[in-house]
Design brief:
Blueprint lengths: L14 H11 L4 H8 L3 H8 L7 H11 L3 H5 L7 H4 L1
Helix pairs in contact: 2-3
Length: 86
């Protein structure tokens, strides 16, 4: 690990953008994600456009469908010190 170099943050990502990015990476439409989660497509659109707060319960449901941890959605720009992460 001598050559370890921490990645630099290049872009700020909002909660809604993190949902959209993960959805698109998995090649899902908003309608398909709606079908997997039971969350209306209009609500998914509103979340992605930061018109509606994600909330913990929705984050859990979306994280299950998007195969990620809910924290990835709720805290997209979270930085943890290396010592604290270990």
């Amino acid at each position: 690990m001598k050559n370890y170099r921490a990645a630099k943050k290049r872009v700020e990502v909002s909660v809604g953008e993190s949902v959209r990015i993960l959805r698109e990476l998995q090649e899902l439409s908003q309608s398909q994600l709606s079908g997997l989660t039971g969350i209306p497509q209009a609500t998914i659109s509103a979340i992605e456009n930061s018109r509606v707060n994600l909330g913990v319960e929705r984050a859990k449901v979306l994280a299950r469908a998007l195969n990620c941890h809910p924290a990835v959605l709720v805290f997209p720009g979270w930085e943890v010190a290396l010592e604290a992460a270990a």
